[in-house]
Amino acid sequence: MAQDATVPKLNFAYWLDKAVEWGQARTLESQKDVCLHLPQLQEFLHQLYETIKHSGSTVAIQQFPLIGQLLGRLCWNPFIIGNDESQKTLMWCLCCLYSSEPQNTVELKANSWIRSLLCHLLSSSKWESNEAETSPFISALGYTSADYYCHLVKNMVISLVTELRENQFNGLNIQGSISASRVNAVSIFCVPLITLPDVTPLLETLLLYHGGSSKEILSSEFLEAVNEAFLKKKISLPESVVFSLWLRHLPSLEKATLHLLDQLFSIQLNSLEEVACVMKDSLLPQAANHPAIFRIVNEIFKNALMETDGTSGVMTIIQVFTQLFLQAHQNENKQHKFPLKAYFPYHHQPLVRGLVRRPFELPTTYWSQHLQHISNMLRVLVEDTNISCLTDLFEIWFLVACFGEWLDIAAEQLLKAAVEPDAVLWLLAFYYCPNNENQQRTQTMVEAQAVYSHLMMLFSCTDLSLKDLEAAVHRIIGTEQCWNRCLTTHLLTNFLLFSCHGHKIAQECIDHIAKTTDTSNDVYNLLIRTAYRFNHSGEENQRTVKLINELLQKLRLKV
C-alpha cells in the first residue's frame, strides 16, 4: 500500500476511501499505512472541524452527507484513536454534529449514535465486558483496553484542565492565552459526556473559568446540561462550582429554584425538618449568600406566592428558606460576608436589622419589647409616610412575611407574656390584611381585639368547653373575609396550645373548625412551624409538644 505523494487539503472522498480501506487496522500492512498517513489525517480532521464548527449540525450534514460514515469508521480504528490529538479532534467533530434541540426522529437517532461513539472513545465500560476486542496495539503497550481508555480519558482531561488553569493565571499573556472560541468548543465537546466521572474535573475547571471576556464564553447547552445533571443527581459538584454555574447562567438558577419548589409541593410537609433537609440538599440557601442569587430566588418565591394566592404552605416554605439563608449568612467568614443592605437594598434598614435578629439570639424576656419595636417601625412606614402604590406596600409586607417566625411568636406572646397588646395585634393585623383600603385593616384590628379580649378572659379557666369558645369559633365560621378568619384561627390555635386547660378541648375544637371551614391547611402549617421552633430551641414543655404531634397526626388526613 504505497503512500500518496500529495493529498488535497480537504479531499473528503479520499479520506473516506482510506477509512474504508483501513477498516479496524487488523493487518500489519494497514497498521503501517495508518501510521504513515496519521499527520495528514490529523491536518484534514482539524480543517474539517474548523469548517463545520460554526455551521450547525444540519448545514454540516448538507455540506458533507457522508460525514457520519467517515467519523464512525475512524472512531473504530484503534491506531487513529490511540493518538491523543486525533481522538480529541474526532470528538470535537462529533460534537459539531450533535443537535442541542433535535427536531425529528432522524436527529434524535443521530444524537444517540454520537453519544454511543463518544462513550466508546472515552468510557472503559464497554471494553471491560469484551476482552476479545482488545486491539493488538493496546496489548503491545501492556494495557488492557479498560486500563488504556481509562488512562486516555484521564490524561486528556488533565491536559485540558492544566491548559485552562495556566491560562487563567496567565490571562495577560495574550500570545499564550486560549481563545474564547476554543474554550467554547471544549464546553460543547463536554455536553454528551457530562455524566462520565473522569470528565468531572474538566467540568469544574470550565465552570470556574472566566478568561478575559466580558461575555459568557461557555456554551449555553453545556451550562444547561450540567445544571440538569446536577438537579437529577447524576453528577456531584463542589458548592463553589455550583454557585459559579448559577451566577453565570440565570436560566439554570431559575430552573434550580423551580425544581426545589416542585420537590416541596410534591411531598406532604410532615415536618419542617424534612423541608429544611430538601432545601439544604439543593444548595440554594447556601448559594443565597451571594446577594445576586438571593434576590433572584426571593423574586421567584414572591411570584410563586402570588400565583398561589398567598397559601400558608408556600409562605411556610419561604420562611424556612429565609431562616436557612440567615443561618448560612451568620456562619460565613466575616471577611467574605456581604452587608444586609446588599440583600435588601430597597428596604428600611432599621426594620431589616430588627427582622433578621433570630429569636434565639435574644432572651425570651426581651421578645415582647423587640416585637413592639418592629411593630412601631412598621406602622410608621405604612401609616406615617406616603406609600406611592400597592406594589410598595406589597414589598414591605413580603419582607415582614419572610421573617414569619416573629409573627408566630407575636401571637404566642399575646397570650403568654406581659406585652403591649395593641402594638402586637396591629403587627398581626398588618400581616393578615396589609391593605387598609375601605378601612379593611382597621376593621381586622377591631375583630382581633375582640377575639383577644375574649380569649384572655378564658386563659386561666379550669373548666373549659367548646361552648366557651363559641364566640371565637363563630368569628372563624361566620366571616367571609379570609384575613379575619386566618387571624382568628391563629389566635385560637395558640390559645388551645398555651392556655392552662386548652389542650383538653383542642382536638374537638380544631375538628369542628376543620369540618365547617377551609382553615385546615392554615392550622396544619402553624403547628409544624411551632413544632420546628420548639425542636430547635427546647423552650416549651413536653405536654405542648405531645399535643402538637397528636393534632398534626389527625390533620394529615385532612390536608
Biggest sheet descriptor: none
Radius of gyration, in Å, reads 33 Å
In DSSP terms, counting alpha (H) and pi (I) runs of 4 or more, how many helices? 31
What would the principal axes of the Cα set say about the shape? elongated
* % residues in beta strands: under 5%
Beginning-to-end CA distance, first to last residue = 79 Å
Tell me roughly what share of residues is in helical segments.
55-70%
Protein name: FANCC protein
Organism: Lanius ludovicianus
Pfam families: Fanconi_C
InterPro entries: FANCC
Explain the overall architecture:
One of its GO terms (biological process) is cellular response to oxidative stress. This is FANCC protein. The chain has 559 residues and is mostly helical. Among the domains are: 12-124, no CATH class; 436-557. The chain is built from 31 helices and no strands. Helix 15 packs antiparallel against helix 16. The longest helix has 25 residues, at 28-52.
